[in-house]
Write a structure and sequence with these properties.
Length: about 525
Amino acid sequence: MPQLRSLRFKLTAVVLVTTLVALLMLLGSMVVHDVLSTRGRSGQSAGVAGQLLVALAVALPALLAAFWTLRRFEHVITRPVSEILVQADVRAQQLQHTNRELAEAAAQRVLAQQEIMRLNQELELRVQERTRQLELANGELALAMQEACSANAAKSAFLSAMSHELRTPLNAILGFAQILSSDRLPSTLEQKKEFAGHILKSGRHLLTLINEILDLAKVEAGAVNLSLEAVPLQEVIDECRDMIAPLAAGRAIRLAFPLACPWSVTADRTRLRQILLNLLSNALKYNREQGQITLDCSRQDDGRLRISVCDTGLGLDSAQQALLFQPFNRLGQESGKEEGSGIGLVLTRRLVELMDGQIGVHSIAGQGSTFWVDLPLAQSGPVVAVAATPAISASATLLYVEDHAANLALVKELIAHCPQVRLLTARDGESGVALARSERPDIIVLDINLPGMDGAAVLALLRADARTALTANAMARDIERSMALGFYRYLSRPLELDSFCEAINSTLDYLAQQSAPKEAP
């Protein structure tokens, strides 16, 4: 090791120098002594050389002894020192290694602290984000709960109002029916006609309420199947005008309808008529006496047709407009003056949207409202005029299979005014099949929901005959099922007399066309 070699060299040099100095001092003292002695003795110069030789002879062993002593001292002194230095060097290396480990540990600790700080910051950000999301979720939950409470309250109010709305026409129907059937309450013929008119009006109002509820339920359940086609708009407008004209005349409300609308729209004809009737009925209901209802059609730039219904009523403020298309909200219910379910506009909007249309309103309080509907334009096809058929025009034999006595009595009363029609009745499917096979009627009217053998089973036995199906169930799935089974027409209850007569006449026309001889090519 460099330190050990340096220490050895220094010790050797010190011993040698010390020995040489001692020898030189010894020799010097001897020379001085001899010189002084020789001055007293003249002529004895030869003795000096001898003394020098003697001194050298003495100094050489002394030098050897010093060297030997040095080696001994080196073995005794330097080896422990060397071991100490080796241990010190090992300790130094260990210390350096320890220092490096400590430095690395310190660096790792710094990195760990930095990682902990980063994780803390990340955790804090996550906590903040989760807290924000939780606050948003709580806000949405609170809003949903508020909406649910509002909807529940609105539904409760709706059920309460509907209970009143349903009982009101029922009260009129049952009350006037009791008067007409009573022998103790006198009434003239004119009064009886008036009472019958009240019964008819109340029954139709009750039917409208029920249909609105059922239609909305079907729309919400996605069970409405539309038959989209090119519908000439003028035909539907004329039908709606004929239906509301008597009601408008009763309040001296003028109707301003287009004389000729050349466009057709892509829509379901029945639902389009329902939409326009609802808008026109609202315009009539909320209009002022001697007001006006204007229906207008205009082509839009986006390839749609806008149908506008404008009234001269009280109009709507912004708060009323915001709630206009919300379910179970009925305008005018605060005063209790207006009848209705409160779902007519909701149903109208859903039907318009199902036909790829839009609906909106422009209203100014005190000046009136304009409701508009945009529907896709369609290419108009040939218009076929359909004549009104208030009664059965041709002679025929009609078999009516119905288990309900009141419905049988109704059809019997109707056919009684048509002497050219021969009516056969049956109360169940088995009797109906037997009569059909024995009498060979021209038309068979079946109730689909017959006890025992239902209408579908009866039809399966009478596939070769023309037929018109009649059922008390007015849901769309029964219409589809009936037409798929092979029925020629479908009528839903309550039975409209004009629709019944039109169905019989169209069936007779169909039979006449099928039986007419075909011209040879």
